[in-house]
Design a protein that fits this description.
The protein is α+β, with helices and mostly antiparallel strands. It has a domain of 351 residues.
Length: 597
Amino acid sequence: MTILRRQRLILILLGSALIACTTPGQSGNMAERTVAPAAKSVAAETSEPIIDYHERFIPVVARHGMVVGPEQLAAEVGAKILRDGGNAVDAAVATGFALAVTYPRAGNLAGGGFMLIHLAEENRQTLVDYRESAPAAASRDMFLDAQGELDHQREYFSLQSAGVPGTVAGLLYAQDTYGALSREEVLAPAIALAREGFPVSFALSFEINASAQRLRQNPAAAQLFFRPDGSAYAIGDTWRQPDLAWTLGQISANGAEGFYRGEVAQRIAAEMAAGGGLITAQDLAGYRVVERQPVRGTYRGFDVVSTPPPSSGGIHILQILNVLEGYDLQAMGHNSATYLHHLAESMKLAYADRSLYLGDPDFVDVPVAQLIDKRYAARQRARIDGMHATPAAQIAPGRPLGNESTETTHYTVADRFGNVVSNTYTLNFSFGSHIAVPGTGMLLNNEMADFAASPGNANAFGLVQGEANKIEPGKRPLSSMSPTIVLRDGKPWLATGSPGGSVIITTVLQMALNAMEFDMNVATAAAEPRIHHQWMPDVLRMEEGFSPDTVRLLEAMGQAVDIAGRTTGRTNSIMLENGWLYGASDTRRPGGWVAGY
């Protein structure tokens, strides 16, 4: 039997699981709780999707609902939830739990993230912050050795590297507050995938084998990802995760209490106590989700809504857009040397500000309004030399106006009611700390590495961070995660986001610019080569695909160009136009999927 046929059987199995947990008439009643009207007017909608087949890259088109994510089975889970009467939040939550099973490098139960939601009926956006937090026993210098040097083994790959998980609390909060279906319905597909298993894809096999050496160092992780004899599962083998199915079952039956208290919490706390970790049962019981107002700004008539602190992503996307709005970018030409130079110089200014001003707003005063003020952007714009690169050493954080792994993951959902969800969550590194909690089937995050473990010095992603992001008990580490929604004429037009650690911000920025400024369709906007500059180190990272002449011109301007050996980010996006949904999963990595109907 081929892998594709086996995957189809898995999807049939998932459908049976959903039907089994839905009583007659329940879907119809729950649909009344949707956060947008079911009887949507289609008078202004076109009868056919608008596709230009002269484009090099063509999006996937759907009419009623769509999920775009990094893995096929989880995306199809979300799409089936939409078809069965769920709204975008239901589908996003189901997809998030399914990714914990099918995409273990970044999908998770023991991580954290941000969910940006557009509520169509209320015509508003809200942000569910379920970022991890530092345990009560955490301290400012906890990762420094006796000589005052960073101990990266403890910072990245020990039990101490784990923050208190937020994913389960965040997904359930979104479900309880804005979903239409029951908790049991949205968890049923993930439980079925974990219990019954699914065929190992090429992408999953590659990902596990790439991290096999470190995963095998932890007995619980080795038991989870490899056969009893220690060998790797082959492509097409069925991978079952009974311990993860048990954990998901506890959550389904008992809600957040099933994870943050009770047997699951006891197993986490016991592993921490046995191995020198910091998270206690009290830390788990005390975790809280925070619902925040997104940051928002405008760009040439578009409204841009994105992630507030403790993510720096939304602020810096708006900062850079504000600076670039003062230039005629179309006259420069897309991805010309002049355009890329101005883009890079704007990025440098924003990342310099990140090093000083950004942190958890519950602990530090972040000058959000000043940083995204267009008058501040005008002052910053004046610092840019249009012909020469300004060395990073000469750039200090700007003075505001008076009064984030490379293996994060992102997915986007749109439903027939007009609701949209843009969700980014993470374990930080690929497979997080590479440590699994015995008996739970889940990996721990290593998000404590996102704090400024040594303020003033670079973190794992090369980002220089200051005292605002120092380690403090209960604090949430600064992030680059940037789930973003762009509105046109007051309605969602583009929803996007990306993994990538420090490159998330610039990836989402260029995705949005390609669509807004250069009128690219969602697939073309994702496919165009990208650049990244984060102030320190003073390097302009460029993907392959740019003209050699463009590279030479940038070098002549003083840009220290590095042609990256790896890609920059991986967007999963939906564009909404004329009653149609256009989806694109970035082709930079294998396994991405657009599921729609």
